[in-house]
Amino acid sequence: MSSLHAQLQSRNVDPELASLILTLAECGSAISTLVRGGALSGILGATESENVQGETQKKLDVIANDLIKERLSAQPLVQALASEEEDHSVDANPAGRFLVSFDPLDGSSNIDINSLVGTIFSVLPAQSGVSGEAAFMQPGRNQLAACYILYGPATVMALTTGQGTWMFTLDPQTDTFVLSDGQVQIPQQTGEFAINASNQRFWQPAMQRYIADLIAGKEGPRGRNFNMRWIAAMVGDVHRVLSRGGLFTYPQDTKNPAKPYKLRLMYEANPMAMLVEQAGGVASTGYETILDIEPEQIHQRVAVILGSKDEVETCLDYHKA
Ligand code: AFP
Ligand code: FBP
């Protein structure tokens, strides 16, 4: 039984980055306690407000955001924060070495139905002489660490600092994250995919053809059957992909022409792409490697196709055709 703290030491993670990661883990553990309390914690239901993306904020969205903001602002190593629930980046400590982007509660529509939700973090290096939102405008390839904490039947944390992806499970007795998989490997091949199929008529032709061929199963060009899963929380779907392989996608669509993509680059796509790549998988928009995208603003959205290497590459072949 090796703790997160011991793992960070034994893998020679930069002690300051390790200290920040322990703070992220503490945030996850505190949110996990609130999630476990459900209605008893007073966290269910919606607030009166909307976030910058025009989405109604759930109570726990706001509570989790405030909790993380408070703890990270108190961390001298953090220069600034960017959150799904904040219109603009928030300055913390000018001398800090790190910039942290986060989705405090991914999958928030799941909270009231007692289903999977999670928190996602991305850590970038601060840049000398650059402050405010401009400092965050770095490709995901620059991330020093990425992690999510999934509040499921067990609370688990997937973490990478660029030396593979590791999985930890929160021990509720001791409130510590304990290593459960020291080298996550996504199987190269899969028979499972995840997509919100209700958007089918809005997808681009390449995605239409790819999914139609999966659904055609044994009788179709792929010559085998595929199964579908959709958790409606990227954090849950990506956790399944890391645990047993699969392809997850939220592709471009024309449902709302003003918003062709759903997932946010800085605090959803980038950290998940790093975790997936570090576990041997692939993460792309269909046309570009996610980690190579040069961001233009902190809340920008992208198409995402990620997971088992061979299957994602097959999907990308449809985009080349
Ligand atoms: P929130 O961050 O607003 O909770 O949204 C979660 C999410 O962006 C992502 O985690 C899911 O993959 C996706 O929404 C689910 O979308 P559908 O509503 O299309 O199922
Ligand atoms: P198990 O109890 O064998 O895990 O099966 C669960 C289940 O019967 C239902 O709970 C669920 O709706 C269904 O399987 C999911 O089926 P599918 O694999 O077709 O998505």
UniProtKB/TrEMBL annotation:
GO molecular function: fructose 1,6-bisphosphate 1-phosphatase activity; magnesium ion binding
Binding annotation for substrate: D106, G107, S108, S109, N196, K262
Entry protein name: Fructose-1,6-bisphosphatase class 1
Pathway(s): Carbohydrate biosynthesis
Top-level lineage group: Bacteria
Any Pfam family: FBPase_C
Reactions the enzyme catalyzes: beta-D-fructose 1,6-bisphosphate + H2O = beta-D-fructose 6-phosphate + phosphate
GO biological process annotation, one example: gluconeogenesis
Protein residues bound to Mg(2+) 1: E84, D103, L105
Organism: Ferrimonas marina
Subcellular location: Cytoplasm
Keywords, ordered alphabetically: Carbohydrate metabolism, Cytoplasm, Hydrolase, Magnesium, Metal-binding
All residue ranges annotated as the Fructose-1-6-bisphosphatase class 1 C-terminal domain in the record: 186-319
Entry annotated with the keyword Membrane: no
HAMAP family: FBPase_class1
